[in-house]
Amino acid sequence: MPLSFLRRTAQVFPDYPAVVHDGGVRRTWGETYARIRRIASALSRRSIARGDTVAIVAANIPEMFEAHFAVPMTGAVLNAINTRLDAETIAFILNHGEARIVMVDPEFAETVQRAVAMTGRDDLLVVDIPDPSFEGGTRIGTLSYDDLLAEGDPEFAWDLPADEWDAISLNYTSGTTGDPKGVVCHHRGAALNALAHLVNWGMPQHARYLWTLPMFHCNGWCFPWTIAANAGVCVCLRAVRAEPIYRLIRDEKVTHFSGAPIVLNMLASAPDALKDFDHKVKVMTAGAPPPAKVIEAMEAMGVEVTHVYGLTETYGPSTICEWKQEWDAKSAPERARLKVRQGVTNLALEGLMVANPDTLEPVPADGATLGEIFMRGNNVMKGYLKNPSATRKSFRGGWFASGDLGVMHPDGYIEIKDRAKDIIISGGENISSVEVEDVLYRHPAVMVAAVVARPDEKWGETPCAFIELRPGASATEAEIIGFCRDQMAAFKVPKTVVFGEVPKTTTGKIQKFILRGQAKEL
After folding, report:
1. Which family is this sequence assigned to (predicted)?
2. What CA dihedral angle connects 354, 257, 213 and 425, to 10 degrees?
3. Which residue(s) pair with 499 in the sheet?
4. Domain boundary among 239, 263, 296
5. Tens of pLDDT along 24-34?
6. Residues in the chain with pLDDT < 50?
7. Which residue among 239, 256, 278 closes a domain?
8. CATH code: domain of residue 428
9. Domain containing 466: what range?
10. Cα-flanking dihedrals φ and ψ of residue 397, to 5°?
11. Which of 223, 323, 357, 493 has the largest CB neighbor count within 10 A?
């Protein structure tokens, strides 16, 4: 289990480095384990136990890493919340997940303060997380993370969960309609997916991992637990920018990092003067197929790219484009083209198929016939919290239905071709087109609205809105974008607005496949 990874590493390598963070924070595994036990002890003394939820809204700081162990150490469930969300959505998550405590990074204090007010609850304990790497922010809690540390016992006697199928984390995914759905993950799946990274990615013991991937995103793809398993080094990073990333790669001898294709694109486009490291580095990317030219640029400067695929419901990456030695002899463009495929199962995923969604009959492995991607195995969620109908809908014949459309190549590697649910993946984050459309329909000049993904070199995809105005009404692109910005998280706002008649079938259904084609031509 993930907690046993931590205990073993702290016992075997107590003096080895565990955490590095700007502002002079350098801690060993022994020190980190003691801090985690103190937090777990303090939470337990405040009656946090099995079945409870503890939420956290924080950047990739040491306290976020510690929470991935301290909360489950009490038997409770960790709910790491997307820091990009608006106050209304955070309020829904806090209430739906029944969080008893929310820990808050000062950078996000203002939004969380509004969210807590919207919950209408006076029993929600707010804990401020002081962080010297961030200037500003206000205290909104009744106590601080340091106060909890002071309350706790570094020798806290904790136990592993009695059942490995107990929940370890709760992660919310927007899906395509309605409120966010709470994905419940268990200790067994978290442990197996964490270990799969070590084997499939070839991570050696004491690997030095840079946190360019948000830890709130599928629990950082299970990498907090992976780092504990191989006694690695957790190199924290608050802001994902080229200069600090290259500086940390060079100075901290970072060996591995992860991120959406947008991160790779940013690094590949950075000034050459920043690219002054001289050791081998590996990057794992997912969220949208990385452009082949970005893969080529990354590998040209000594960064080996591994493409993976998964969903929140599968603990993050559950397939991997496993590399074969015979492909080394291919040209750079050919290698990049192979790497954009989503690949095969990782070691934790038991089954993967592309099939007819109605019959579950696998499609021919011809690289052309479309079908829906299905998965099954230990790294598939328990289900959606308090949503049995959505849980039943997502499982068919013992398989989890991804909602993504793809093909199966003759060599057994899958490749996504479209997204059945019209999800837009921008900068590695899922955006519901229905949610954006709902906001657009609130504008008094909008009669019909449809949102699709527009390819974008920087973000992978961005929302593109097609709008049919009411007769006699008028609106500008800037006005529509400003209207949306006032009502939703900034990353969900359409970057492009196209005015005109929206194509529909004779029954009035919007023909999004036409709009996707138009968006690609823009």
Report:
1. Belongs to the ATP-dependent AMP-binding enzyme family.
2. -40
3. 467
4. 239
5. 899 999 999 99
6. 175-177, 506-507
7. 239
8. 3.30.300.30
9. 423-521
10. 55, 35
11. 223
Short-list 152, 141, 134, 142, CA closest to 104: 141
Same domain for 205 and 100: yes
Residue 293, both tokens: 């030219």
Residue 403 in domain: yes
Residue 161: phi and psi, rounded to 5, are -60, 145
Q: At 7, which amino acid appears?
A: R
Domain assignment present for residue 438? The answer is yes
Q: Is 341 helix (H, G, I), strand (E, B) or coil?
A: coil
Model pLDDT, residue 406: 85
- Say whether pTM exceeds 0.70: yes
With a CB cutoff of 8 Å and minimum separation 6, the contacts of 184 are 77, 167, 169, 170, 381, 382, 383, 384, 385
Using CA atoms of 340, 341, 345, 348 in order, give the dihedral in degrees to the nearest 10: 20
Q: Are 447 and 515 within one domain?
A: yes
Of 72, 119, 82, nearest in space to 99 by CA: 119
Q: Which amino acid is at 345?
A: T
- CATH code for position 116: 3.40.50.12780
Contact (CB, 8 A) for 446 and 467: yes
Looking at the fold, whether 203 and 60 belong to one and the same domain comes out as yes
Give residues with Cβ within 8 angstroms of 306, minimum separation 6: 201, 282, 283, 284, 285, 320, 321, 323, 339
158-168 pLDDT, tens digit per residue, is 999 999 999 99
Residues 369 and 498 in one domain: no
Residue with tokens 């015979």: 326
Tokens of 1: 């289990």
Same domain, 154 and 24: yes
Longest distance between any two alpha carbons in the chain, whole Å? 73
**Number of Cβ atoms within 10 Å of the Cβ of 305:** 23
List the CATH number of the domain containing 401: 2.30.38.10
